Amino acid sequence: MKILMIGGTRFFGKRFVQLMLEQGHTVSVLTRGQTIDQFGSRITRLVADRKDTTALRRVLTTDYDVVVDNILMSAQEAREVVDILKDRIGRFVMTSTLSVYDPKPGAIVEDDFIATKYVPKTPTHPGEEYQQGKRAAEHALSQAGIPVSVMRIPIIVGPDDYTQRLFLHVQATQNETKLYFPNPDARFSYLHAQDAARALCWLCTQKQVGTYNISAPDAWSLRQLMECISLSVGKDFKFGDSTEPPSPFGVPEDYFMNTEKAQAAGFQVPALAQWLLRLIDEIKVK
User: Fold this and answer.
1) Are 29 and 37 in contact (CB under 8 A)?
2) Domains and CATH numbers, the chain
3) In DSSP terms, which residues pair with 124 in a beta bridge?
4) What is the pLDDT of residue 254?
5) With contact defined as beta carbons under 8 Å apart, do 8 and 71 qualify?
6) Nearest to 171 by CA among 235, 250, 240, 252
7) What is the CA radius of gyration of the chain?
8) Which stretch of DSSP H or E encloses residue 18?
9) At what angle do helices 165-175 and 222-233 cross, to 10 degrees?
10) pLDDT one-digit tens code per residue, 115-158
11) In which band, very low, low, confident or very high, does the pLDDT at 176 lie, cut at 50, 70 and 90?
12) 211: burial class by Cβ within 10 Å (0-12, 13-18, 19+)?
């Protein structure tokens, strides 16, 4: 297959590119050219800022079996790229987010946000702006008249996570400093970067159309996460009050995904106990 990857030079994007190359697919990566990758002559680099429509039209001149958009953030961006490529692509795969959902008691299923029924809402804070942008992008794709797959993912973790969100918690435990969690017993979803990349490959190669929650099948409370980190580090973590720096994982209530739809369709993610402690051991300061 001929694959166009928009946003594929770091974290799970580069893992996806590597997996597709290993399977023998032809991969082009749309990039601003600011991040050096390890792929050499194995990929075609299309240098453009995805927010520059003129530049996109200049570089997106060929046909693709699948377009994978890892950084789609708005309805306008969705409409622009589809307008340029609509008659020259077979399918469109979007990386979306747990954030399109509002929290609720228990596990969140795909139908808790239906993109075709989205009604625009004016954001009132930065977190809501991200949510509304992703919702609007999904809605725009649902109206595009092309086959679309949407991968909704929670917090992504990995040894090369440029946000260092998990490392922040490991570091705090090692340094015996406190972080604030609004509700340490709230359950949350996590996904390893390699599994995010595998999921994108699955959507592409198995021609899965529709919306899928992709995460580890189990949800841990934030207290469980910190206990796991304490076990690895060998020091107890002490929760702080609201005067301490806030945890980027801190949520006031349960916020986790049900992944049974993806499992029934054939995609499995290992349980947290199978990989999270190993990852913590990998990223902690030795």
Assistant:
1) yes
2) 2-155+190-213 (3.40.50.720), 159-189+218-256+270-283 (3.90.25)
3) none
4) 97
5) no
6) 235
7) 19
8) helix 11-22
9) 60
10) 999 998 888 887 799 999 999 999 999 999 999 999 999 999 99
11) very high
12) buried
Residue pointed to by tokens 């595009």: 144
- For residue 200, which phi and psi values (nearest 5 degrees)? -60, -40
- pLDDT, mean over the chain: 95
Please choose, from the candidates 78, 147, 148, 150, the residue with its C-alpha nearest in 3D space to the C-alpha of residue 111.
150
User: Hey, what amino acid is at 122?
Assistant: T
Q: Which two tokens stand for residue 61?
A: 């001149």
Q: Which residues of 236-262 are buried (b: 16+ CB within 10 A; e: fewer)?
A: ebeebeeeeeebebebeebbbbbbebb
Q: Which helix (DSSP H) or strand (DSSP E) does residue 197 occupy? A: helix 193-205
Q: What pLDDT is attached to residue 208?
A: 92
pTM: 0.96
Q: What are the tokens at 106?
A: 């228990």
Q: How far apart are CA 138 and CA 88, in angstroms?
A: 20
Q: Between 276-283 and 165-175, two packed helices, what is the crossing angle to 10 degrees?
A: 70
